[in-house]
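User: Can you help me understand a structure? I only have the sequence.
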Amino acid sequence: MSGYTPNIPAASDRPSQSQGQILNNFQTLESTYGIDHYPFTDATVNQGKHKKVTFPAQASDPTTLAGELALFAKNVGGDLGLYVREASNGQISQLFSSISSTISNPNFVVLLDGLKIVGTTQAIPAGPNFTVTYTAGFTTCFGVLYSYTRTFSSAPEIALLSFSNASCDFQRTIGGTFSSMFVVAFGI
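Assistant: Let's start by predicting it. Here is the structure, written out as tokens:
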């Protein structure tokens, strides 16, 4: 199937001359519309609704008129994020980010006004001290929450020594067998 052919039928065309192009245009519209929407031919209650919304990264910030918002994706320093621009070329705010950490099972989200929440599950390495580091840290890290799995209950076995805008440092205070830990950091 070739692409969409505009301006058909021409005023001088017989319907049979443009029939192939007209049919092709309808097929092109059906398949293109069906990428993010339920297609025109969907006979369910979902007809015309979104299946998903895809945002290709924009080369520049979109302009907005009074009374409208623009929701768009852009890449800033390797971080593909979802942004919103307010009316009349107003403020641009990042809604979400795709940045992930270097350790396993990363979760990273940027909320309105730039609050970032980073969470990850990690196997606890051997040795007394270890660090959890993120590939994209914070301008200001406000704090860290963590929990871990241990084999017996006693005094804390892992302690948070410090946190910075890029990492969290932990220390084992008592030996024992550990399986994994979950760390959540908050900041901007």
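Now, to help you interpret it: The chain is about 10% helix and 35% strand. The first helix runs from residue 15 to 33. Let me know which part you'd like to focus on.
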